[in-house]
Amino acid sequence: MEPVIHQVWWRVTQRLRRTSLLPRRSHSGCAEHISVPASTRSRHIRPTPLVSRIYQPSHLRDVGQDSRVQGEMTCKSQRLMQQAGLIHSSNPGCYYYLPATVRSMEKLVRVIDQEMQGIGGQKLDMPSLCSADLWKVSERWELMGKELFRLKDRHGIDYCLGPTHEEAVTTLVAHQTTLSYRQLPLLLYQITRKFRDEPKPKFGLLRGREFYMKDMYSFDVSEEEAYKTYESVCQAYTRLFTRLGLRCVQVQADTGNIGGKLSHEFQLPADIGEDQLLVCGNCSFSANVETMSSDRTDCPQCKTGTLVESKGIEVGHTFYLGKKYSRAFKAVFTNAQNNPSIAEMGCYGLGVTRILAAAIEVMSTEEGIRWPGLLAPYQVCVLPPKKGSKMDKAAALAEDLVHTLEKALPQLRGEVVLDDRTQMTIGKRLKDASILGYPYVIVVGQGALEETPRFEVTCQEIGEKMFLSKDGLIDLLRKVETV
Ligand SMILES: [Zn+2]
């Protein structure tokens, strides 16, 4: 290299190293990231998840006392999730989501992504910090009242922490001055944290002040097309809940402060549900009591059925908005006649953390969590025998089994945990496994040492216990769906 060029190169690299854009040199002259000892490189191969290493501190705090302090009402899902170390309460309506919960949430997000992208949804991410000016245009700055978390920046400018993003997304689309009818329908969605200053946060993740929501917004050329989009989103929601194994009813609902002309709620029937529903025993009709006079008992759809009251947890909501926001924010596209035209909009929410908690609420027993199969943080838990017991020799077989299962069934990679807490009896660990609700629990005990090894497997959903060979296990677990 020419001396002058070398000098320049030297100065540039030194500056980049100082600003951490390049790795610093160690004394041996090698860049530090290359001098990592070979032994730690094997960390890139995923190790078997060990129960002793999963950060899931059970009984972090006495649940009863905890909720008294914060004046929160508890329910089954909150109690079980706290007992199992899945969530930890921080301040009213706010929770730590511990690693197993995040695994489950990520699975739910993947299922939602599949369904939303299946109908043409495109994922984006909008700021949580929303300018008050936008909310004043829609007049919701006043309308939302105390529910909106408001704050000022250092210049004294007002913001809110977004509970929903009609204003933000419509402004974004309005900024695209070249939007053509050929690009519609446009379906934009995000899965982000939302904020709502609930007067009484309660029921754990069911009614928090900070939560995850999927919110999708649609832009269409006409009312007719917008109704088609609306229908396709409702169908996607129904498919989603079917895949999760959750019974969900789609009910007519009030449009509330979102506005618009047509609205449906997706409700999971549950005793602790806060919504009162009227469900026809004869046809598919169901409605939120808010939309009807509550003393009505005859079905307006089939005329013959009787309406029965039921309680539900709202997990999804759809709104046909018309031009309410697109007119206010000038979300305009060029129509087939080359004229500017205002888009027809819809918005569609899914409470992501709420779906998770509601699923646990409706599926679990009083003693243990039961997950929708797709959402279980881990699908299989393998229990080796207690250390020092006469079956101790089977311990190596348990580890072998984990590797065999992962090799034979690629969809279970990273989904099989080994409960290595072998200082505990099998009984005690089985009880823990039942609380945490792994869909399949395999005990490697006496049977595994026989000439033809047998494993005791419990399918927790149906509570059935079976003794299977290794091949039998593989056959059974082949059916397990993961996402
Ligand atoms: Zn009916």
TrEMBL record:
<keyword id="KW-0067">ATP-binding</keyword>
<dbReference type="InterPro" id="IPR004154">
    <property type="entry name" value="Anticodon-bd"/>
</dbReference>
<comment type="similarity">
    <text>Belongs to the class-II aminoacyl-tRNA synthetase family.</text>
</comment>
<keyword id="KW-0496">Mitochondrion</keyword>
<dbReference type="InterPro" id="IPR036621">
    <property type="entry name" value="Anticodon-bd_dom_sf"/>
</dbReference>
<dbReference type="GO" id="GO:0004827">
    <property type="term" value="F:proline-tRNA ligase activity"/>
</dbReference>
<dbReference type="InterPro" id="IPR002314">
    <property type="entry name" value="aa-tRNA-synt_IIb"/>
</dbReference>
<feature type="domain" description="Aminoacyl-transfer RNA synthetases class-II family profile">
    <location>
        <begin position="106"/>
        <end position="372"/>
    </location>
</feature>
<keyword id="KW-0809">Transit peptide</keyword>
<dbReference type="Pfam" id="PF03129">
    <property type="entry name" value="HGTP_anticodon"/>
</dbReference>
<dbReference type="GO" id="GO:0005524">
    <property type="term" value="F:ATP binding"/>
</dbReference>
<dbReference type="Pfam" id="PF00587">
    <property type="entry name" value="tRNA-synt_2b"/>
</dbReference>
<dbReference type="GO" id="GO:0006433">
    <property type="term" value="P:prolyl-tRNA aminoacylation"/>
</dbReference>
<dbReference type="InterPro" id="IPR006195">
    <property type="entry name" value="aa-tRNA-synth_II"/>
</dbReference>
<keyword id="KW-0648">Protein biosynthesis</keyword>
<dbReference type="InterPro" id="IPR002316">
    <property type="entry name" value="Pro-tRNA-ligase_IIa"/>
</dbReference>
<keyword id="KW-0030">Aminoacyl-tRNA synthetase</keyword>
<dbReference type="InterPro" id="IPR033730">
    <property type="entry name" value="ProRS_core_prok"/>
</dbReference>
<dbReference type="InterPro" id="IPR045864">
    <property type="entry name" value="aa-tRNA-synth_II/BPL/LPL"/>
</dbReference>
<keyword id="KW-0547">Nucleotide-binding</keyword>
<keyword id="KW-0436">Ligase</keyword>
<comment type="function">
    <text>Mitochondrial aminoacyl-tRNA synthetase that catalyzes the specific attachment of the proline amino acid (aa) to the homologous transfer RNA (tRNA), further participating in protein synthesis. The reaction occurs in a two steps: proline is first activated by ATP to form Pro-AMP and then transferred to the acceptor end of tRNA(Pro).</text>
</comment>
<dbReference type="InterPro" id="IPR050062">
    <property type="entry name" value="Pro-tRNA_synthetase"/>
</dbReference>
<protein>
    <recommendedName>
        <fullName>Probable proline--tRNA ligase, mitochondrial</fullName>
        <ecNumber>6.1.1.15</ecNumber>
    </recommendedName>
</protein>
<dbReference type="GO" id="GO:0005759">
    <property type="term" value="C:mitochondrial matrix"/>
</dbReference>
